[in-house]
Every structure is written in C-alpha cells, then in structure tokens.
Amino acid sequence: MTKNLNRGLIYLLLIGIGVIMIYPLFWILASSFKSNDEIFTNVGLIPSNFTIDSYIKGWAGSGQYSYSTFFLNTFELVVPTVVFTIISSCIVAYGFARFHFPFKKTMFSLVIATLMLPNEVIIIPRYILFKNFGWLNTYNPFIIPALFGTYSFFVFMMLQFIRGIPKELDESARIDGCNSFTILWKIIMPLCTPAIFSIAIFQFVWRWNDFLNVLIYVNSVKKFPVSLALRMSMDVTGNVAWNQLMAMSIVCLIPPVIIFFLAQRYFVEGIATTGIKG
C-alpha cells in the first residue's frame, strides 16, 4: 500500500512538473488565436474572440517575402546539412572503428578535443575563412563542412555504435568478396539505423533552430530561414503583431516536432545503445 502511494505521489509530481514545462507552449498556441490586444488583457488560455487571421496575415509576412520563402530557405539549408552529416559521420566513424593507420589515436584525440572548443572561440577565424572562400550570404558554411565530418559529436556517437557491431560480420562479408565500402553500405549502416536517426534528429533540430550562425553568414532577407524571419517580425519601434508572431512560432515548431515523433523509437534506441556500447 505504501509503495503504491509513493508511486502515485511521484507520478503526480512528474505530471505537475510536465504541466509547468509545457504551459508556455499552450500559452503561445492560445495566444495565436487571440487578437493582439487580447493577449495582454486576457490571461486565460481560451480566447474570447477566436480568430485565425493571425495565421493568414503572419504567413504573408511583413515585407515582400512570405513564410513560404523562409520555409523553403530553411529546408534548403537544413536537409543537405543533415544528409551530408550522416554520410560523413558514418565514413569517419567507420574508419576509426575498423581500420588501423598511423597516428590514429592522435587524430581521434584531436577530433574529440574539438568538442571542448566553445563556439565563441572559432566564430572569428571561421568567418574570415568563409569570407576568403566567398561563401558569405550562402548556405555553404553549413553544407560544405558537413561533407567532411566536422561535427565531432556525431562522429563519436556513430563510433560508439559501430564498436558494438561484431567484427565477425565484416570478416564474413570479406570472405564473400565484399570490399570496405560494400561492408559499410550493406552491413554497417543498416545495423546503425538507430544511431543514424539520432544524428538526423539532433542535426535537424539544431540547424532548424540555429540563429547566431545564420545571422553571421546570411545577410540577405531573401535567404533568411525561419529563425531569422521570426526575429525580423519584431518591429524595433515596439509595434509588434504578437498574435502573428505567436502563430508563426507555432507553425515553425511543427516540422521538428513531426520529425521527432515519427523517429522517436529509433531516437531513444540510438541514444541508449550508443551510451552502453564500446
């Protein structure tokens, strides 16, 4: 009896914490259906005058570009970055996990050491480098580095997963005439599906929500992703259409939420297994 009571209290406590954490999201959703004045006069979640004009006007944007352009820009930036990150992380992790070469430990230590570098330390050198390449006001600073396994966190995640795959599978495949790339493509990557989904979700959400890096490298409104478009919607004079801003915030939340819930099972499995294997 006491055990069930304690469990019930723990559940109530967790539910209460969950409600507190998710309340701001409910408030944003409710505010998106209110008029701009009602947001500051009605503290309740239920709008007194339900309207969807905030979504229609908000999607139209405040200038010559609508959120259709901003969403297309975001997908143009995010999707190639995610795909190239998965490919490069798999290849680099496979090399560290299955091959022996000179200075292997030193090179892997350098890869892991980059995890300890704060982003603020490399902003200026990276900006100068990309400026010399002529990549400013393009998405190349995000897409091209993803081709070369520069996201060491994902390399380490994939490496931990590959280490848990028996090497006997590789040896059996070599007996059947498979080369290294065939083993990677037909054996390693299918078995690494949970880790691949984890990388895809992490990278998608991080790049989708990225504000600082995009602000540094992209200066044309025509190429703004949704993160910068939302900030642009806030008029510096203080005349902000908050209901439209809330509406577009909800719309911008939809793709990451859908991606997460569709791949939730693989995501949880990937995080669990990369943490215990190796």
Could you write a compact summary of the structure shown?
The chain is 73% helix and 0% strand. The protein has helices spanning 2-31, 38-41, 53-60, 67-98, 104-113, 119-133, 140-146, 152-163, 167-175, 180-191, 193-209, 212-217, 226-232, 242-262, 264-276.
State the end-to-end distance: 42 Å
From the spread of the alpha carbons, the general shape counts as globular
Calculate the mean pLDDT score and round it.
87
Query: Would you report the number of β strands?
Result: 0
Number of domains: 1
| Beta-strand share of residues | under 5%
Q: Please give the count of helices.
A: 15
Domain ABC transmembrane type-1: 71-263
Protein name: Carbohydrate ABC transporter permease
Family: Belongs to the binding-protein-dependent transport system permease family.
Pfam families: BPD_transp_1
